[in-house]
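Reopening this ticket.

The earlier resolution said the output was attached, but the attachment link was broken on my side. Pasting everything inline this time so it's all in one place.
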Amino acid sequence: YPSEFLMQKITEDNQIPVHLCVSLSLQYVAGLKGRALVEFFHSNIAEVENEELRHLMWSSVLFYKAPNVEVMACVLLSTKAIYFLLDDSFIHADEHQSDFWNKENSDCENSSFHLSCCFVLKLNDLQSVNVGLFDQYFRITGHSADHIVTCLTRDSYNTHTFIQQLMAVLSLLARTPSPEPVDKDFYSEFGSKNTGKMENYELIHSSRVKFIYPNEEEIGDLAFLVAEKMEGLTNLPSLNILLYVLAFQVNHVEGSAQSTSSLQPKTLILTSSDLFLFDEDYISYPLPEFAKEPPKRDKYQLADGRRIRDLDRILMGYQTYPQALTFVFDDVQNQDLMQNLTLDHFGE
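Inline output:
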């Protein structure tokens, strides 16, 4: 251990997304290759001597206790736990969450060391994994509010690969088997008799961890929500969501020396007639079992919406992935030019 193939795969995956900035400590990790990376894991991160590193992924993460702070992390999956090596800027980002992080090492700030927080979620504590719409993100849930993390991969391939690796590692765990289920028919297995509504599709792994996937009704609910935001649309039943993607909105900040750009996470939804940007809560829904009250904000909050017919042109950058798109809309105050034109305007 480890095989050459595994080391090559982990080395290839060890690349920070080019559009995101990280601290020097994580830049150091991203510079490690092959055996050096495995040795770094065993000497600095691994908690048990005989655990094996199986997968590495760079992703933005959100914590249930700090839902407003998205932070870059190196996610390491081993045969014992999932490790989130966090950007050290996260510790100071939210003052209200000071009890969430242990700050014993804060006196080292001015030294030459670059420290990172490492959040550990043991596989034995894992209860469920919720996969988001179109595999754009997934939420890992443990036994308490401290153990809920959402990985915003913004990439269906990365999500799928991580889920596959996680299932493979969970298969190695020795857990007491669940009691044999009573035979159920299809309708009692997948539906609620009270409401007749199909529940989200659940796959219960042999390790008793639930993998929960969204069903088509979630898209229907989203389409209904989008329709509510569209005033004056007569044919609501024909509304179709053509595209759902987690993206960033670029806000240019004019600085004294040079203009910089900040990236605001947004959910982009395209219908046959409109383009919407939503602020989405990726961490609070569906409600965890221990939640005593609903979240303070809705799952989807409309940030901006424009009609496709007002779209003038689309500018595409020439850089490699991720691609930057600029949508230029006609700057017309009155949404519909034709609605107030009457014969009176052409009188004497």
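Reporter confirms the inline version is readable. The radius of gyration is 24 Å. Residues 145 and 175 are 23 Å apart (CA to CA).
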